[in-house]
Design a protein that fits this description.
Distance between the termini: 43 Å
Order of helices and strands: HHH
Radius of gyration: 15 Å
Strand content: under 5%
Length: 68
């Protein structure tokens, strides 16, 4: 998802691959983030940043309607 190229990385996690790699390294060293049995650190961080960067709406616009 992130590691394909910089435009893909920027679209998915709002940062280039170099910055993403540095963030993962910092979280491992100072944040004590560890690899789990099923998910690697890069995947954990990418998933978290994707949700934050896309405001949880997965690219779809939602219209708000008021009732009452």
């Amino acid at each position: 998802m992130v590691w394909i190229d910089d435009p893909t990385a920027i679209n998915n996690v709002r940062m280039d691959r170099s910055a993403f790699r540095k963030l993962c390294d910092l979280l491992c060293r100072h944040g004590r983030l560890r690899v789990s049995t099923n998910v690697g650190i890069d995947e954990m961080v990418a998933s978290f940043l994707y949700v934050l960067g896309h405001d949880g709406n997965d690219g779809e616009s939602s219209s708000s309607s008021s009732s009452g």
